[in-house]
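Go through this fold for my students:
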Amino acid sequence: KEKEEAQSLHFLKEKESIIIKQNLILEERVQERNKELLKTNEILDSQKEKIEEQISKIEKSNKELKKFNKKLSSKNSKILIKNEELQLFKKSLEETIKEKTYDLKKAKKRAIIAEKLKSSFLNNMTNEIKDPINNITGFSNLLLDKNLTEIKRNEYLNIIIHNVDKLLEQIDDIVTISRIQTGIVKLREESFDMNSIFDPLIEEFNEKLKFWDKKLKIIKRIPENIKIKADYNKLWTILHKLIGNSIKYTKSGTIELGFNKIDLNKSFQNFINLEIFIKDTGSGFETEKLNKLFIRLNEIHEDKTKIYHEIGTGLAIVKGYVDILKGNISVESKINEGTIFLIEIPVLVL
C-alpha cells in the first residue's frame, strides 16, 4: 500500500508539475497575446484619430457640398425661370416682328396706292384748275376786242369773276384737304346763334343763283333760333359746301336748310345733338354712289377717282370737318327726286 501510495503521489506530483509548466506556458502566451493586443490597440487608437479626422473632413465636405447643391439648385431654378421668361419674350418678340412686318407690308401697300392716288388726284385737280384758267384767259382776250358791246363786256367780266372765284375755291380746297390729312386742323369753339350762320349763307347763295340763272330758291326751316358753342368756321364751311353741292345738282325747285334738336341723356346737361339737314329737289344720286360720296383722298382706290373727280373736293372736306367735330353725316337720295344730307354733331346749348 505504501508503495502504491508513493507511486500515486509521484504521479500526482508529476501531473502537477506538468500543469504548472502548462500554466506557465499559457501565462507567457497570454502575456505575449496581451502585448500584441496592446500594440494592436495602440495602432488602432492611432488609426482611430486619423479616421475620426478623415470623418470630420468628410462631414465638413458634405456640409459644404450640401450648401453648394442648395445654391446650385437655387441657381438652376432661377435659370429655369429666366429660360421661361426668355421663351415668352422670344415668342412675344416673334409675334411683334410678325405684326410689324405685316404692318410694314400694309403701310408699303398703302404708300404705293397713296402715290398712285396722289398722281391721279393731281391730274384731276390739274384739269379742274385748267378749266377756270382757260376760261379766264379766253374771255380776257375777248375783252381786248374794241368792237365789243357793253353788254357783252359785262357778261365776259362776270364769267371771268366767276372763274376766278372758282379757281380760288379749288386752290383753297386743296390746301384744306392737305391740312385735314396732316392732322393740323384744330377745333376753335365760340358762341353764336344759328341765324348768324344760316342767314349769311342763304343770302350769299340766293345772290349767286340770280347770276347762274337757276329757277331755284333756298329756304330756311328752323324750330327756333338757339345759341350754341361750337366751331363756327368749320360748321359754316360744311354747310357752304353742301349747299353748293345741292345747287350743282339741282336745276329748279328748292333747297331747304334747317335743323332739329335731339336731346341727350340727362347726364349730358345742356348738351344736344344738333341735326342739320340740307334737302334739295335735284337729280339725286344712284344708290351705289351714296356710300362713296364722302370718301377721303387717302381712302379712294384708283377705280374711284372718277367719282371723286365728278363730285369734287367739297364733300371730302365736309367729311373731314364732321369727323373733327365728332359728328356723323349721312345721305338719302332718289334719282330725279332729290337728296337729303343729315349732319349730327354734339353741341353745348347756351
Observations:
- The longest helix spans residues 2-142.
- The CA atoms of residues 181 and 290 lie 22 Å apart.
